[in-house]
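Page header: ASSEMBLY MODEL / two components / 585 residues total.
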Amino acid sequence: MKIIGIDSSGLVASVAIWEDDTVIAEYSTNYKKTHSQTLLPMLDQIKKMTDLDMDTVDAIAIAAGPGSYTGLRIGSATAKGIALALDIPIVEVPTLEGLAYNMWGTTDLVCPIMDARRKQVYAGIYEFDPELNAVYPQSATDIYDITDKLNEFGSPVIFLGDGVPAYGEIIKERMKVPFKYAPANKNRQSAASVVSLGAIYFKEGKAINADDHSPVYLRKSQAENEGPQNFEV
Amino acid sequence: MSAENSEKRDIRILAIESSCDETAAAVVKNGREVLSNTIYSQIDLHTLYGGVVPEIASRKHIEKINQVIKTSLNEAGCTLPDIDAIAVTYGPGLVGALLVGVSEAKAISFATGIPLVGVNHIEGHICANFIEHPDLKPPFMCLVASGGHSHLVLIKDYGEYEIIARTHDDAAGEAFDKVARAIGLGYPGGPKIDRISKEGNPDAIAFPRGKVEGSEYDFSFSGLKSAVLNYLNGCRMKGEEFSQADVAASFQKAVIEVLVGHSLKAAEDYKVSTFAIAGGVASNSSLRAEFVKECKARGIDFYYPSPVYCTDNAAMIGVAGYFEYMKGYRSGYDLNAVPGLGIGEKQGVRKA
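Prediction written out in full:
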């Protein structure tokens, strides 16, 4: 069984190929080039490097949001296009579950945080028992809500994600329980994690028709928030 | 697919267009024959806001794109193995909207090995004229007028464009939208002004004809738009009612006089005997009638597309893509959306 993994929800562009319970290739960049220029050339590289025959691919696992709206759509359109061409399904992996999966096996709580701009974060709180379990599912919220929840739960925490540098000061100030930050090789989105978790969901029958996939934004567009009366096109 | 040994093999292009608020796909045979032309229009969503909201447009594109492509292939009686190349609009347009189509097209190309070619949206509009006019061949001149563009373009050969004139401020269609909003007709302005103008007096109000100092073919519509707004303000100050139909008809006449006047001056100066129009504004009935009359008087052959090929569609992208493909142009997996792509410009589209 073969599954392609894609995560373009943040600054990281990441692609991976999963085959029978092993990730046989992963390519990630955390660089300012647009995903439109990086993502597919990267996938093409690992496809060639592993002599992947596209007709043998069973599904696409995608970090399905939240994240940068445009980044998510580049990933989603890439996944939908491949799925349309090969007539295979998509497995949607919530972005923050994919991030949390980087820390598989820890007995601490895992709290991935993404900087969502406009003074918000996308965050969730997860534990492993032994598989991933959402203690607090991914939401668009503010950092204070997250630190309050973590203090309430009272367990040690591992933070990761691009929200850490953005909100490190507040985390340090507000946290009353022990916490640490994930190391450099684990602290950003990884398509290997997305595809590994996606493979579990795929085996559980959670794949969907690719035509029906679109990203989960967790927020309305600014126009919808402000309403037609207040929004100037 | 037709046999390799047949005299001339048919070339089928699958085209994808998502530059603004229409999610569209089409299959075009040999650059002239439209086998399918599927358009999912989001206009109702944007009408609420009085114009296109980019984020809403992008969200709808990603929701609908697979269904639109599948419908288009089905209606054409094709499957992907029948397709020789995928053409996709990569600019100009809304960057977030363009990226959906571009990413999707690249992914299909990647998964199937079908060649990809990026297409310029405006060049697509011009090429819409080839669909219904098998006799139309370059060289000719074309006026492209839409909500985002107003250009006079000389088509020297298939795929070879020279810009003769452009707008210095608002696009013609933008002026239609703004004036329609100001007189309470709502969005989209073009068809509404076209309709109500038929009941109005085009000579009721003397609105200015925009000129650009030092560039005789170029357009300017912001002065005209301001004149309409000033007129409406004046009416309000004096407590007078204004006639929607008269304002619309007088405004429309001012736009058309400029568009037709500059076009025909350029056509004569450049000694072209064939003229075409394209873009959303090209479906305006008065503009068409005026061009028909004036071109006939000058012995110029005049062409215009059906309304369905004037507004955004993918068939026109398939036509433009066909000529690019036949010239050997291809795009790689790094093709990016170029929101400000100029006519005749290429970025990430190269000879193979």
